[in-house]
Design brief:
The protein is α/β, with parallel strands linked by helices. The protein has nine helices and twelve strands. It has one domain: Aldolase class I (TIM Barrel), CATH 3.20.20.70. Bound molecules: S-adenosylmethionine.
Length: 314
């Protein structure tokens, strides 16, 4: 499926919940979000089938925290059973990813995971995440590696004056571990985040001139990845603020309740839930919405869209 700017759209990020067990300062929601409105596993399968018909090849499950869904294994099995997807992946904070669960998810059809860790210092991790336990997140990383939910990406958002002094620690982590640490520049969603200026990725890269670019893992991946001789892992830079990649954007999102969102920086959504039982109408609505995907996001440091990524699905 192509949009009006001839971008090929084949990547769906689907939020299976907006609930989260953590409450990150820049992402969490002040109010406890409830289970109400979440799509069931069968409804998610109906959606996935329609998106595959429209040309989607890769599916990422996200949230909120997707591991809070007790039926996540069924969701993955049902998505895999649709057929036609090249890959099903997951974004998680990893704290609930036990070894047993990692094996089960792999068996259900999950190919790989991204785990979000914004600090390698236990106390700071706790502060940023509103009470999270770094050891649990690192155990999740270990479980994912053992279960071969790989290549494994660690997402880190650096916040000025909060954890930006840890860039080099993360780079050292990537040197010693078979993971790709990806620095994601903070995008301004809610008004509260606007006091947190993004840390431009170029500033980190400048300090490590020995890093050499490596081949992208997928077409249209937003991350520019680097490695160096004798490194076990890689380091990647996702720069939505300092180096927009909208021209090659191939992604769309579905929120926890079935609303389609074609651009992170656009407030508009199309409610697909009422169309679930009519596949022709559903695919038609998806194609129409995708056609009008905005050419680019317009995040400005002061823009604050009034919601957080936890609610949209990161
Ligand atoms: N709970 C899961 C997790 O922690 O990975 C999935 C949802 S979370 C919203 C997905 C990713 O979005 C995390 O890596 C988080 O750091 C990132 N994120 C949240 N708010 C962001 C923002 N304003 N700018 C950039 N990345 C953000």
């Amino acid at each position: 499926m192509h949009d009006q700017f001839n971008r090929k759209i084949d990547y769906l990020r689907l939020a299976v919940t907006r609930r989260c067990n953590l409450n990150c300062t820049y992402c969490g929601n002040k109010n406890r979000l409830s289970v109400s409105g979440e799509l069931g596993a069968f409804e998610i399968q109906q959606l996935v089938r329609a998106f595959v018909k429209c040309g989607v090849k890769r599916l990422r499950l996200t949230g909120g925290e997707p591991l809070l869904r007790t039926d996540l294994t069924e969701i993955i099995e049902r998505a895999a059973a649709v057929g036609g997807l090249k890959e099903i992946s997951l974004t998680t904070n990893g704290t609930l990813l036990t070894q047993e669960l990692a094996f089960t998810l792999k068996e259900a059809g999950l190919a790989r995971v991204n785990i979000s860790i914004d600090s390698l210092k236990p106390l700071r991790y706790k502060e940023i995440t509103g009470g999270g336990n770094l050891d649990e997140a690192l155990a999740g990383v270990e479980a994912a590696l053992v279960s071969r939910l790989t290549p494994l990406h660690i997402n880190a958002v650096l916040l000025r004056g909060v954890n930006d002094d840890e860039a080099d620690d993360f780079i050292l982590y990537a040197r010693k571990n078979p993971v790709t640490v990806r620095f994601i520049e903070l995008m301004p969603f809610s008004q509260e985040q606007n006091c947190l200026a993004p840390v431009p990725n170029s500033q980190i890269l400048e300090r490590h001139p020995y890093l050499t670019p490596v081949k992208p893992f997928t077409r249209s991946q937003p991350s520019v990845d680097y490695s160096a001789t004798n490194w076990k892992g890689k380091v990647g830079f996702i720069s939505p603020m300092s180096d927009k990649f909208c021209d090659s954007c191939n992604r769309i999102r579905v929120l926890f309740d079935g609303r389609l969102k074609t651009c992170l920086g656009d407030e508009g959504t199309v409610d697909l839930k009422p169309l679930l039982d009519d596949e022709a109408a559903l695919t038609d609505a998806i194609k129409k919405a995708v056609h009008f995907k905005p050419p680019s996001h317009n995040f400005e440091p002061e823009c604050g869209l009034g919601y957080t990524l936890q609610e949209i699905g990161g």
